[in-house]
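Hi R.,

Quick one: here's the DUF2179 domain-containing protein sequence you asked about.
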Amino acid sequence: MGIGLGIIFKFKGTTGGSDIPAAIFLKRFGISPGKSIVVIDFFVIVLAGISFYLKGMPLDKSVVTLILYALLLLFAETYIIDIIIDGFDYARMALIVTDKSNEIATEISNKLSRGATAIKARGIYRNIDREIIMTVVTLKEVTVLNDIVKEIDPDAFMITNTIHEVKGHGFRRRI
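And here's the predicted structure, written out as tokens:
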């Protein structure tokens, strides 16, 4: 079910269910369809459990087991939806604090064919002016980037974040 909904969302379709509010949340608030569906369907499952209770139906072991299975499948479904929409190759943004920004930026350009932006910064703790290199790479390129940084400046400080949307040269549109 998660694969099917992921494909439907990827090609801007709908099933007429909880994916309609999820599409609205994506457009208005930038919330991923998987996260929206988990919240909406979670409340549906909880309300179903409450209605069983209010109708006087016994909440025996089999009903509780079904509710737990529904919740488990719901979380798996939402994870799969986001993977189908975004793909397995999320982009990564790296911020590299180094004294050797020119050398690292040149190697990023040569080995990865990626651009890099130098940002002037000052370390608060030691009050030292430095440059931060910002670059965006694919998941497959992170290892090469790590090797480049380690080789040129083993003392560099590097932060890598998952990026869910990149617009510009070298990156395809995901949704």
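The two ends are 19 Å apart (CA to CA).

Cheers,
M.
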